[in-house]
Specification:
Blueprint: H1 10-18, H2 24-32, H3 35-41, H4 45-54, H5 56-74
Length: 77
């Protein structure tokens, strides 16, 4: 780097690569829950995988705000 060049903001640019896509966390969450919990809640795990993958923002919001609580509660006695 020469003295007439402004320092680059490499830290900010590199950190953007570490940010996961919006739908990845709900997708990981769906994957980690066992199939029997989905069946107990009256829904299908495969369907939620598809929803979260193909509709990442809307599907992720629906999953996190509504169905996640229902599926997690279905495993409790």
């Amino acid at each position: 780097m020469t003295s007439d060049q402004a320092p680059s903001d490499d830290v900010t640019e590199g950190s953007l690569l570490l940010c996961p896509p919006p739908g990845s966390w709900p997708g990981i969450d769906v994957q980690r829950i066992p199939e029997h919990q989905f069946r107990a809640a009256g829904t299908d795990k495969f369907m939620w995988k598809l929803i979260v993958v193909y509709l990442p923002i809307a599907g992720g919001i629906i999953w996190l705000c509504t169905m996640r609580k229902v599926v997690r509660a279905a495993a409790r006695p």
